[in-house]
Each structure stands twice: as C-alpha cells, then as structure tokens.
Amino acid sequence: MKILQTMQRSAAMVVGMALGAGAAVGQTASQADGEFVGKVSQGGLYEVEAGRVAALQGQTPVVKDFGLLESQDHEGVNAELKRIATKTGVTIKPGLNAEFSARLAKLKAVPAEEFDAYYLDDMKQIHNNDEGLFVMESQGGSAAYQGFANRTAMLVKAHLGWLNTL
Length: 166
Fold this sequence. Notes:
The chain has 166 residues and is an all-alpha fold. 82% of the residues lie in helices and 0% in strands. It contains six helices and no strands.
C-alpha cells in the first residue's frame, strides 16, 4: 500500500507539471512532431484502456491499483498532448488503430490466472518503447513538444521503475 501511495503522489506531481505547461502559441509542428504525436497518442489511448481492463480483471490489488494509476496518468498526458497538437495544427485520430485494438482484445481475452503477469509484461514493453520516443522528441522536437516530451519521459521512467518492482 505504501508503494501505491508513493506512486500516486509521484505520478500526480508529474502529470500536474505536464498539465500546467502550455505549448508555444502560434507554433506549427514539424513532420517529425506529427509522427511522434501519431505514435504516442495511440500508445496513450491504449494505456488508458488497458489500465481500465487491469482495474477490473487484475487478480491482485497491486495490479488493479496500477491499472487505475495508468488510466489516470495517461488520461492527463493525453489531454495535454491533444492541447499541444491542436495549437500546432496536428490532428489526433480518435480511437485505437487496428494494431492497438487487437492488442486490447488480446489483453481482455487473457485467462484470469495469467492476467497479472501478461498485463505487467505488456506495460513494460510499451513503456520501454515509449521512453525512447519521448526522449528523442525531448531532444529533437519543436519547442512546443520538447517540454511535454521531457516531462512525460519522467512519468514513463517512473512507471517503468514501479513495474520493475512488481
């Protein structure tokens, strides 16, 4: 329980920093920024949905709690990404694409006795991938996305740290 409370406080702080920052007004996105948004917006939507599934289907309290945390954190990140994308002229496609829809369907179909291990492995995989995307954007993206990517990379690293302790 103490780990979950620490995770929630840390995550709330990082998400709060992300939501408190704004994009540069009037700035347009580069093609690379648009590609970044396309990739991480899908991952973010998936993490929200997968977290909701884990909150319902998780077999242990820690997995259920982590699922809730994932959903809450990534809803905040997704909202900030949408705000920046709107300001910079990037359209975020609503809903999950075919890849992430299939991934979510597979998660929902995992037998109860295998769910926790499967979900945690899935989250490690997506967070490892996302970390690289956010770090790259924080170093090479336009100003509107660099700060967002840096702050979100911190959140992703925090999630990875917690995942590696579970």
